[in-house]
Amino acid sequence: MVYYRRKGRFAVTSMTMVKALNSALDNAMERDDSIILLGEDVGVDGGVFRVTDNLIKKYGSARVMDTPLSELGIVGFGIGMSMAGLRAIPEIQFQDFIYTAMDQIISQMAKLRYRTNGDYTLPMVLRTPYAGGVHGGPYHSQSGEEYFATTQGLTVVTPSNPYDAKGLLLSSLNLNDPVIFLEPKRLYYAGKMDVPDDYYTVDLRKAKLLNEGDDISIITYGPAVPLVMNTVKKNNINADVIDLRTINPFDIDAILKSVQKTTRVLIVTESPKMFGVSAEISATLAEKAIDYLSAPILRVAGLDIPIPFALEDYYVPNEKRIMNAVNKIMQYR
Amino acid sequence: MIEETDISDEKLLNAYKNLIMERVMDKKMLNASRQGFLPFYIPLMGHEAMHIGLGLALRKQDFIYPYYRDFGVLLQMGIPIDTIMSQVFATANDNALGRAMPDHFSLKKYNIGAVITTVAGHLMSATGIAYARKYREIDGGVLTTFGDGATSTPDFHVAMNFAGVYNLPLVFFCENNGFAISVPTYPNESGQTDAYEETKGMIYKKAEAYGFSGIRVDGTNFIEVYKNTRKALENSNNTPILIEAMSYRMGPHSTADDPNKYRKNDVTEGSEKDPVIVSQRLLKEMNILDDNKIKEIEDETEDSSSKLINKYEKAAKPDKNTILDNLYEEEPWYITEERGDLQ
Fold it and tell me: Which of B119, B158, B168 to substitute to test the interface with A, most A CBs within 10 Å?
């Protein structure tokens, strides 16, 4: 972690992920007047999770826009702005509500650079809270990363801690391509971390090795990361834990390097297993690393059902399911 | 009726030439598609007067986000013919490397948006572009075109709402040709629509609910289209506006449908409401055109358009090695790997 000295002291503050994201938006907007925030309740209310808190006071309603209630409109409005040289940051209040904007995302946002061969590019970051953690039931808790990851032309990023959240958001704003920035809402207020007040970036093309070990590679990202780390620590698993940070394109080099060392792989996601991100990683490893593997690749993931209200805790991965999978992999000879 | 206009006779005559060029090119491109030189084509017949009127109305500082039936707008705007034809025939010279279907232009340097196929999919983009230009205090208005079918989509209503809420410098221009492929805008009891009856519906009146005005113009009269659209663009700093231009799609929707199945062909080539006939009548009344001149222009256009079609039918297609270019600014590892699949 890089600390910055300012006036003889470390300019870091202990921040939640929400505060870190707010700080990133503030830094970015201060540096670049082409950045426009827009969405439902992002202005006066500061966003339902407070990620945009107070920004309207500093930057005004022409740059922090409370829009009419239409996800199609919010995303489409941002696309137009970014086509015309601004850098829009639309917020969709819950990822579950994004589907009326999916035509805009798939048909216009994702394809614009390719279909015009770069005549138009789309520098924009679509932010949205996703996955479980607040007992929101089928329409406030979805893990929809696969919808975006399987759409050619999108970059899909998801942070797992406050420091990465700020640095990855600022990196996303440096791309000249559209980014789907998925914020795990279960981690919004899950803990604080020292985060620089000033501008910094985190390389979104690089996965982060959160724990080093020789026995097994556990590949995960976003909302599942703290669960994996707690399980590894509590059970003294000798594991490499890889936080992808970016789902598409994922850091294949980091994965291969670890797998060649450990020869055993577990993939943990909160999104459902079938046709998921874990399937793509498994298939890629089957193509590129089958000669190294000592055991089948296993996956611990969300159940293949819509996420239920009362029984959410049984839907998401937990320590027991992870340990069962780890033991199964380690026993394999 | 003699039209009063601020356009010079020379410019009006040139506009008429472009209108004839669009008509003749349209027929030849439809033929090219039937002969297999174009895999797909979107006919234009019946839209010419709207296109020429729009092209006349747009000023250098204006931005247009067209839809996929606006060939003639670009002709009248003075976009180089090589740029237009390279796109339509998807040649190696096309700035988008032939990635989009015919008439899906993307020309940022001429203030032209990237035409999208999904109906009304560009209307929110045009709205955002209008906001960005207002935010940056850029002079000029934004104009976006769409067919009558688009007015049934959520995109249309959301874009109209945003334009009203933020009072954007945006002209919504509906090229009402009476049909969404085979479905009339407002079917009557027999499933038919007469393009020129009030019963066809009142698309322009929808604007009132969004807080700005809507007008209806004769889409077969390019001077009326020009006048109203220019006025709307000049006034767009004050308010958005919806213009509904009434016309008739004289051909099929695309090369994939047969209009004889779904309507009686009441506006045919050479009939009273054909935009070519309407234009000839207007310009004759203004003493700009006579029968000799009409014939002369026809012959010239026939000759020049044949040469163009022959040239672009034979033009080289894009290099296969470009197929994986420009998905992202920075190429992902899997795209680099897929380059091997091309070899």
Answer: B158
Strands (E), A170-312: 179-184, 193-196, 208-211, 216-220, 239-243, 246-248, 265-272, 298-302
pLDDT reading at B194 higher than 80: no
Tell me: cis bond preceding B240? Omega within 30 of 0 counts: no
**Could you tell me the pLDDT band of residue B177, with boundaries at 50, 70 and 90?**
confident
| Sign of CA pseudo-dihedral A185, A128, A222, A304 | positive
Q: Which of A256, A333, A330 is nearest to A298 (CA)?
A: A330
Subunit contact B132:A121, Cβ cutoff 8 A = no
- Alpha-carbon distance A235 to nearest alpha carbon in chain B (angstroms): 35
* Structure letter (DSSP) for residue B103: T
Q: Report strand pairing: A64-66 vs A35-39.
A: parallel
Rg value, chain B, Cα: 20
In chain A, what are the domains?
Answer: 12-196 (3.40.50.970), 208-331 (3.40.50.920)
Rounded Cα gap, residues A150 and A163, in angstroms:
27
Residues 6+ apart with CB under 8 A from B60: B111, B140
Q: Which residues of chain A make contact with B95, given a CB cutoff of 8 A?
A: 116-117, 119
CB A161 within 8 A of CB A17: yes
Mean pLDDT, rounded, of chain B: 92
pLDDT of residue A242: 98
DSSP E strand boundaries for chain B: 63-65, 142-147, 170-176, 179-180, 183-184, 213-218, 241-246
What gap in Å lies between CA B145 and CA B113, rounded to an integer? 11
**What pTM, to 2 d.p., does this model score?**
0.95
CA distance B111 to A120: 11
**Which one of the listed residues A63, A127, A140, A264 is annotated catalytic?**
A140
Identify the band that residue B17 occupies on the pLDDT scale cut at 50, 70 and 90. very high
Report how far residue A151's alpha carbon sits from residue B328's, in angstroms, rounded to the nearest whole number.
12
Residue B319 DSSP code: P
- Kindly report, residue by residue over A141-184, the tens digit of the pLDDT: 999 999 999 999 999 999 999 999 999 999 999 999 999 999 99
DSSP state of A307: P
Q: According to the CATH classification, is domain B9-342 in 3.40.50.970? A: yes
